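Please check the following for our workbook:

***
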Amino acid sequence: MGWESDEFGGDHEGHCVAVLGDGSKPAPVQVPFTRPDGTEGTSPNSSWWMYDGEHGPRAVAVRAGCTCGWRSTDMFPIDFDDWGKTDGFEDNTGPYAAWEIQHLARLLGATVPDRVREATDHLREMLTDLARTRPLAAAAAAAAAEKMSGKRLQLAVTAARDIEHTWPEIGDAMGVTRQSAHQRFAKNPYREDTTIPLRPRRIWADQDTPLVDLPPVPPGWADADDVPLITFDGPGEETSGK
């Protein structure tokens, strides 16, 4: 079972893709089954959990994938005893977050979700009505909204740059030129807190499996030397260090 979005439904369904020790995607596992007439057959299955060393070759990591063929560059730790931890759906982390941020966000571009557009329209109407009856309260509310939106805008631009959106793309989304967007936001990156997104640099499946190196850390993320090292001493055993 994969991940679907409100905007695309099953057209861009996300899922985890198993990765072998050499970085390649394994061939589908042929699962035996019995037909209604009693004859035997096999059915291909590429679900990441099939590559546990028992049903198919043992995977050392997973990538995020989409039914359209997209695959994430990043690789993520695999835990055959904890499916939720592997795919990241419940916590919005790992492969699920990569599919949503790196893939869906680029497909959607600057399209504003309906619920956000409706909320901003509603706020505009409320402030307009309030200004007719309580102008000072409307001024206070509008000033608070302006202050909040300014920080949200800087946060959004920083997040866009972190996933390598270009200044022309950001300018188009804001309705300004590339130069204007760059001059306003380039020197003042803003995050909600001081936490910088981290990801593991490399992964071991076990002592007999070759090291799997991840691609360079993208702009705006922590330097490679600051990113925790996640290792697996054996199936289901994880240790972290530097």
Notes: The two ends are 35 Å apart (CA to CA).
